[in-house]
Amino acid sequence: MAKIVTLEQRILKKNSEVAAENRRCFDEHGAFVVSLASSPGSGKTSLLEVALGRLRQEVAVGVIEGDVQTDNDARRIEALGLPAVQVVTNGTCHLDAQMVQGALEHVPFGQVELLFIENVGNLVCPASYDLGEHLRVVVASVTEGEDKPLKYPAMFRRSHALVLNKIDLLPYLRYDMNAARAMALQVNPTLKIFETSCVTGEGVGEFCEWILEQMARNHAA
Amino acid sequence: MHEASIVESLVELVQQNLEPGQRARRIEVRVGLLTGVSPDAMQFYFEMMREDTLGAQAELDIRLEPLRAECRNCQAVHEFSEIAWLCPVCGARGLNFQNGDELHLCNIEVEDGQDRNS
Predict the structure, then answer these.
(1) Looking at beta carbons, which residues of chain A come within 8 Å of B82?
(2) Segment holding B30, helix H or strand E
(3) Which of A44, A136, A153, B34 is surrounded by the most beta carbons within 10 Å?
(4) What is the pTM assigned to this prediction?
């Protein structure tokens, strides 16, 4: 006999449950967590290097790095004298909540108040996976064209902030910043937008201030 | 492609909801147009994975819901079969989507493992 069992459950229910566990762990340790996503080569790690240089003067910082292969990015953070944990996915194109949970035992929470999670370079897949973070930032460099938000709406819709990076290259590009901002806000009108250069440092200060403000608001809540 | 991971999660979820001796015949899922998830890729991975998990009798039925959106300018509500960004009434750029993020397991048609009519 065949029968229909009605479920109406989220397919990624398990990921959501683990993400909630991660969030509880972060809150118990008083850590504010920010995830960074982008396509490969947008400058996530470089942005972190420059931003951490400023943020570390205010709060204790640490990073969980996600990559398909190598620990190059974790090494770059460690070279700054900051704690970094590398998650190597060996093929999986995104971090999920379980992978982050597995990394948590290596995070020195006693010395980390602000934790960044840098996702695998990919604008598609990470959008489906809540990691338990408090804030989601998407980075798009000006060399990628203005219409990334329209091409990858899921990622831009779920993000709290957009960093338009590599603005030092603008003199060499036909990039319409107004169009880029308009398209981003069309997809997500609540996006906070920053324009940065990791070479000149322009805009990174404002980005750091905003993160610290969000952190303070989270602690007050 | 993350559809492989999504299908793995789906198969696990279906297995958790089967009683001992039950098999899944038809699995109905709902995929929102804003998720960026490819139904073809999901079908591909499902067919690869079903033999060793749910069995060859299991079929995946993927429903793509039309996107419902309200215009931020004129408040007109429309349904779209693909992602759209312009209001068809006033032409403004700026739609608030009312759905589109779903990735749901709706229901499973199950049968007894002893059913010989499969």
Answers:
(1) none
(2) strand B22-31
(3) A44
(4) 0.92
Could you report the per-residue pLDDT of B15-41, keeping only the tens digit for each?
999 999 999 999 999 999 999 899 999
Kindly list the residues of chain A whose beta carbon comes within 8 Å of any beta carbon in chain B.
1-15, 92-94, 96, 124-125, 127-129, 150, 152-155, 157, 182, 186-187, 189
Q: Which amino acid is at B13?
A: L
| Paired tokens of B100 | 């589109």
Asked whether the CA dihedral A67, A71, A74, A79 is positive or negative, the reply is negative
In the three-class reduction of DSSP (H, G, I as helix; E, B as strand; rest coil), residue B10 is classed as helix
Tens-digit pLDDT profile for residues A61-111: 999 999 999 999 999 999 999 999 999 998 889 999 999 999 999 999 999
Nearest residue to A158 (alpha-carbon basis) of A190, A132, A180: A190
A141: β partners: A165
Kindly report the length of chain A. Answer: 221
Report helix, strand or coil for B68.
Answer: strand
- Contact A159/A137 with Cβ under 8 angstroms? yes
Residue A54's nearest CA partner among A221, A218, A196 is A196
Structure tokens at A106: 């290596």
Q: Where are the alpha helices (DSSP H) in A3-106?
A: 13-28, 44-55, 72-78, 97-104
Nearest residue in B to A14, CA atom = B9
> Taking phi first (over 0 means left), then psi (-120 to 50 degrees means alpha), and beta for anything else, what does residue A145 get?
left
Show the CA angle centred on residue B93, arms to residues B33 and B72, nearest 5°. 85
* A61 token code pair: 């910082």
What is the residue type of A181? R
